[in-house]
């Protein structure tokens, strides 16, 4: 995982949609089964804003920004189905979104602005990683074994995670999606 360096008065955060149980347990188990060393450190999620370093003093501003984004974002449905890969560009196998892609893209665009504005290394592509930087055989196995995976759930909040000194990503704060479906975004 490409993590930006962090100074002494900084925190490394990420913004993500948490995948609920029972789906999260199966996804985390699958990641562990193929020997992915990050299986226990990264809860199953759909990234909204990837690892970002901010000054600790900016956390209140980050919270205000995410409150505003969440207030303008309507809850939406995610349908995860089947596997895909970023190979040969990146050694990643993931579960794909069959529904909710446009909503995730809009949420990402709005969240990755203001105090969280940044350039992306890759185009944003919402997904749930099930194997990352493991041998090709393990990537192939994850691709096969999770090909029938399917999950449906409603996204009612987005989470800010913090990356601890122990390498574990922990949920810190939820931001409830409170936008009106009638308002519509285009």
Describe this structure in words.
This protein is an alpha+beta fold and 186 residues long. The chain is built from four helices and eight strands. A four-stranded antiparallel sheet has the order 2-1-7-8. A hairpin with a 6-residue loop joins β3 (76-85) and β4. The chain is globular and about 45 Å long.
Shape: globular
The strands making up the biggest β-sheet line up spatially as 2-1-7-8
Helicity, as a percent range: 10-25%
Strand content: 25-35%
Number of helices: 4
Q: Can you write the helix and strand succession as a string?
A: EHEHEEHEHEEE
Sheet with most strands:
4 strands, antiparallel
Q: What structural category arises from helix and sheet content?
A: alpha+beta
Please count the beta strands (DSSP E, at least 2 residues each): 8
| Radius of gyration over C-alpha positions, nearest whole angstrom | 16 Å
Low-confidence stretches: none
Q: Mean pLDDT score, rounded?
A: 93
**End-to-end distance, in Å?**
33 Å
């Amino acid at each position: 995982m490409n993590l930006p360096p962090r100074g002494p008065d900084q925190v490394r955060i990420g913004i993500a949609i948490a995948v609920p149980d029972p789906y999260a347990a199966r996804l985390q188990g699958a990641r562990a089964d193929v020997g992915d060393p990050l299986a226990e450190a990264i809860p199953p999620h759909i990234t909204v804003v990837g690892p970002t370093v901010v000054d600790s003093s900016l956390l209140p501003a980050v919270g205000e920004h995410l409150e505003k984004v969440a207030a303008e974002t309507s809850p939406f449905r995610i349908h995860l189905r089947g596997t895909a890969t970023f190979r040969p560009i990146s050694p990643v196998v993931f579960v794909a979104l069959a529904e909710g892609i446009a909503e995730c893209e809009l949420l990402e665009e709005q969240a990755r602005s203001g105090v969280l504005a940044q350039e992306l290394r890759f185009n944003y592509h919402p997904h749930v990683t099930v194997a990352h930087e493991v041998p090709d055989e393990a990537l192939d196995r994850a691709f096969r074994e999770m090909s029938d995976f399917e999950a449906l759930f409603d996204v009612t909040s987005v989470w800010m995670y913090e990356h601890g000194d122990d390498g574990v990503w922990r949920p810190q704060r939820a931001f409830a999606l409170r936008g009106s479906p009638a308002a519509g975004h285009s």
